[in-house]
Specification:
By secondary structure, the chain is α/β, with parallel strands linked by helices. The protein contains ten helices and four strands. The chain has a four-stranded mixed beta sheet with strand order 3-2-1-4, with helices on both faces. The radius of gyration is 25 Å and the shape is elongated.
Length: about 230
């Protein structure tokens, strides 16, 4: 999913981007922690699972035609003098092929993806993509290892919050999971910008309790909302 499509889907405005950026900056004023926020359309292309589901669908269509072998034969006899047996096989095979191709063509629709791709596969893909961005964006490389990433994957309807070792040693992951669930609910309700601002504020309050701002509170990560393109 392209960045423009994410913006359109979530109805994000320039004011929303500014609000998120300002909320990160404000939250980081009171803590030595660093907060990063990213949104991606989907965390994987899932092409293998989509093709596998399409093949199963094609096989089902093929098998559903078999009980109607005689009816199809009678229909063909009305139009042709003699119909070789291989024509029947060709009809079944062609129908199964087109059913497979049609299903695969529509498999990129998010609601179909969520139906055919197992939840554990989607969850693992989101975690893997979030971890990749955690590394690539430098969240793992803050001076005191107090970086945290709020990662939203739209197709999967999942939010992940990944905290670096310095944070994990003092704050249990269940705290971040609860916050992630709250953000996910807001995104589903179409309140992405407002729920992010609130979530970032809560994240900042939690971090400030354990990691108060130091005298030299250097900003080590970009404060803005990052939109990631799928498949990159």
């Amino acid at each position: 999913m392209k960045r423009k499509k994410i913006i359109k889907k979530l109805k994000l405005t320039q004011d929303d981007f500014t609000a998120v950026k300002d909320s990160v900056a404000q939250a980081e004023n009171n803590t030595s922690g660093e907060i990063a926020v990213a949104i991606i359309g989907e965390s994987s292309d899932y092409s293998f699972h989509e093709l596998f589901a399409a093949l199963i669908f094609g096989a089902i269509v093929f098998s559903l035609l078999l009980p109607f072998h005689h009816s199809i034969g009678n229909l063909l006899d009305r139009f042709f003098w003699e119909v070789p047996e291989w024509v029947h096989a060709a009809i079944y095979g062609t129908t199964g092929f087109f059913a497979t191709a049609l299903f695969f063509a529509f498999a990129n629709i998010p609601i179909i993806d969520r139906l055919v791709i197992p939840r554990r596969v989607r969850t693992h893909a989101v975690y893997t993509r979030a971890l990749r961005h955690f590394v690539e964006s430098g969240v793992y490389a803050t001076r005191e290892r107090t970086g945290i990433l709020i990662f939203i994957s739209l197709m999967e309807h999942e939010v992940r919050i990944l905290a670096d070792n310095g944070i994990s040693e003092k704050i249990d992951q269940s705290t971040w999971n609860t916050l992630a669930n709250t953000i996910a609910l807001g995104v589903r309700e179409g309140k992405t910008a407002s729920v992010l601002v609130e979530g970032i504020g809560e994240c900042g309050r939690i971090l400030a309790e354990y990691f108060p701002a130091q005298e030299e509170n250097k900003n080590e990560l970009a404060d803005g909302l990052i939109l990631l393109e799928s498949g990159i």
